[in-house]
Structure formats: C-alpha cells, structure tokens
Specification:
The protein is mainly beta and 506 residues long. The protein has 5 domains: 45-144, Sandwich (Immunoglobulin-like); 148-245, no CATH class; 254-349, no CATH class; 353-449; 457-503, no CATH class. The chain is 5% helix and 51% strand. The chain is built from 1 helix and 35 strands. It has one helix at 2-25; strands at residues 62-69, 75-82, 87-97, 100-110, 112-119, 125-127, 130-133, 135-144, 164-168, 171-172, 178-186, 191-198, 204-211, 213-220, 226-228, 231-234, 238-245, 265-272, 280-287, 292-303, 306-316, 318-325, 331-333, 336-349, 369-375, 383-390, 398-405, 408-415, 420-427, 433-435, 438-441, 443-449, 471-478, 485-492, 498-503. A hairpin with a 2-residue loop joins strand 27 and strand 28 (408-415). The chain is rod-shaped, with a radius of gyration of 57 Å.
Length: 506
Amino acid sequence: MVLLLIRLILVLLFQRITVVEGCVRTIPPEEYYPSSTLPMETDLCKTCKIDEIEPENMPTGTVFESTPITGDCITTTAKCSRTDGKVCTSVTISSVTSTGSTVLGTTPNGNGVSVRLDCEDDGLFSSGATTRIIQLACEFTGCELPCTTCDIAPMAPTGLPAGESFEYSQTLGPDGCVTAPVSCKRTDGLICQKISLLGPGGVEITSGTGTTAAGTTLTCQGDGKFAAGGVTGINQLSCVFTDCSACTTCDISTIAPPTPAPTGTMFESEELAAPGACKSTKVTCSRTDGQICVGVAVQQATIPSGTTAVITSANSGTASGTLTCGPDGFYLANGQQISQLSCVYTDCKAACESCNAATLTPPALPTGTSFTYTDMAIPGCKSTEVTCKKDDMKLCDQISISVTNPSGSTQLSNVAMVNKLSVFLTCGNDGLYAFDATESISALSCNFVGCPSCETCSIMAIAPLDLPPELDFDVEYVCPSVQVSHYLFFQRTRGSGSLQVDQSDL
C-alpha cells in the first residue's frame, strides 16, 4: 500500500514538470514581434552595426574609425588613434561583454591601435576569442608630443678624466618642445686649442678653438630625437679636448715683490680680461712720493738664468708692462719661468731736482751750430743754462729758442746781431723744465736766421807772395760789427821792428 502511494506521487510530479517545461517553450522572446509584412531575418551575421558599439566620449585629439572588409558576413577593422601628433606609451582598444571588459589590442609607444571585428550568427561582434561584444572603449596612456620626449641624460658622456666635464640642462621651448643647452667644459681652467662636441659616429656637432668650453643647444624633433648644427637623430654624445694648456692658472701673488714695499714706492698688478685666451697681467713699479728716477725697472728672477730686467723706463717714476701666463701655468720671460719679481729704482730725486737737459737736445742742428747746457750749482730745484750758438763765428740777424709743451710751441727768447743765445730753465715739480709761465717743456729747438756771408772772406787768398826773408806775414781777425776787418802785420823776422797795415776795407 505504501509502495503504491509513493509510485502515484512520483507519476503526478513528473507530469507537472513536463507541463511547466512545455509552457516555457511556448513563450516567444521579448525581441520577437510577429509581422505580417516583413520576413524574419535568419542570417544574423549580416545584421551587426558598428555604430551601436563604438566608443563614447573620446578624448580631445583622438578618433575612432571603422573600415568594412568585404565578405559574406559583416567584418570591419576598428581603430583608435590620435590626431594631435602625440605619441603614447600605450594605446589600447577594449571590449565590454556581459562577462566584463577584455583588451582586444594594444600598441606600446605609438599613436594608434586597430583590431578586426567579425559579426557572428548571434548578431553580435566578436574579436578573436572575445565574443558577444556590446561596447568598445579606447584608452590612451602617457601621451606626449614626440618633441617633448627627448631625454639628454641617457646619452650624456660619462667617465670623463679629471678637469673635464659635460654640462647640460633641459627645458621646454616656446613651442612646447624640449631644448637642451649642452657644453663640453674644462673645470681646471686649462685652455684648449680645440674642444669638440661629437654626435653619433663621431660627427662634429659644434667646436671651439682657444677656449675652455664649447657648447650648443640641442632641440627635440618630431621623431623624438635631438638635432643641432645640421646633425639629426642625435642619440649619443661625446667630448674631445685637444692640446689643453694651463695658461689661465698663473697667480701673480706667488711672484710679487715682498711686502711691505719700501717707503715711497708701490707694486701693483691688474688682471687683463681676455676670455678664451691665456691670462695676461699688467704689473707696475712706481714711486708714490713724486720722485723721478734715472731708471725704474721690474726685475725678474728666472729659472735657471737668474735676475734680469723685464720692464724698464728712464727719467720717470714708473715702470709698467704686461706678463703672459705660459702653458705650464707659470708666468714666462723669454721662454723661462719667472720665480720672483722685484722693483728697482735708480738715482731717484725730488721731481724738481730730476730734470735732465740732455733730453732737450735738438735732434738736427744746422752745420756750424751747437747746443750746450750747464746745470747751476744752487740749492733747491735744479736751474740750467741752455745755449744755442754758432761755432764758426758767424753773426746772425736773429737767433731764437723755441720749446714745446702740452699747449703747443712757444718762442722763449730771440736776439739780433749775435752768434749765440742763452736762457735759464728751472726744473718743475713734474720733473720737466719751465721758463716763466711756460711749463712742462718736452722739446727745444735752436733757430738761426740771416747769418751773413761776409765772414767767409779769406785774407789768405790775397796774402803777399815772395816776401823777403826778413819779413813775415800774419793775420788777426777782429769782429767789431757784422763786417769783418783784417789787420795785416808785416813783421821782420831778422832784427827788430814791425810794420802794421790797416786794411779795414778788406
């Protein structure tokens, strides 16, 4: 009885399940709407529409494109790409399905990616193993303009010897592209005959001669590589230093005269600016007390020659000149290293005692004339008599003395009917002679005008001939005036007595 009851329950239960399943199978899908005019599409692989799944909200500067591929079923190429020229570290196209998101394709370091989509029998696109795609998405990661991607650091020279360096910096130019000022440089002050910046394959990008550095500015291009100096595709850099000298490293303080300087004297030095050249230094030994010296010298002690004068001046209180640093880093004189400098002052006097009339000697005097001077033995500032004269006794219509000073040429004095002219000059506080208000005399001239020719008469041309043995003929010259007179003497050479004949008309 119990077994029969169980069997009945099972039969009834089985029948109910069959009825429910049959009811479910008779319910049409929601998408199905019977039509009495259009036949139902049975080939669903021709019904996919790409615009229904294309990405939404594309970023600025990007685009989604599709290109149909001819075939029985709908097939298309879907592409995500940039239109602004930027390059991305990654461009990805993904699908959205009922089970989640799947990457269909990706491109590293590019500006676009594309995949193939095939319409399936269910009326939905697929790509590879990914089916039932209901939405596409484009993703752009790390996108920049190519000219902003250059990096100088990986190509910078490394392991340079001591004293050599490669310096650089990076910045964005007005156009948004990377620019990189670069230079090959000496850090030890050496000057090189040539410094070169080289690119790939040793091609020269830029160079400098007689310098401590050479550089240029690299500009990042659209291919993501630097360019400069007509060289493109720069991905490697190197520095070459040729024939470098230490001629900028000299230190004048190491050879300057000992301090303090003697009273009334001073040593000075001045670095002369000359970018890219060996160091030059102006050195000066000078009197600070106004004294004038017969000689001032900057002396040098050289190795191994000893002490010699490298700079001298005469009748001055100062000696000045320029020293040049040598390639070994020491100042040189005549190719030899200077180990010490000294100032030497010879025969120095107060300025107004130091004038030297010899410096005023006219350079070209007329024949038969001379210039003489005599220093007066009086205390205080020097006084000197200077004389312009005729040595052949000619009397001149005029003799004058003119001098030159900063104001020009000035006549000091003139006289007529004489054969010489003298003036007294006084030494001034500037070490130059003065005459009354005419100061700082630097040159002097003697001027002779109208010296008569009557003095050229020769009495001997008319001397008597064949005198008796007891007579002698002699001449005495006198100059009472411009005209020369001759007194003739006839003198007995035997016995006594003489005869004088006045020939004033000769």
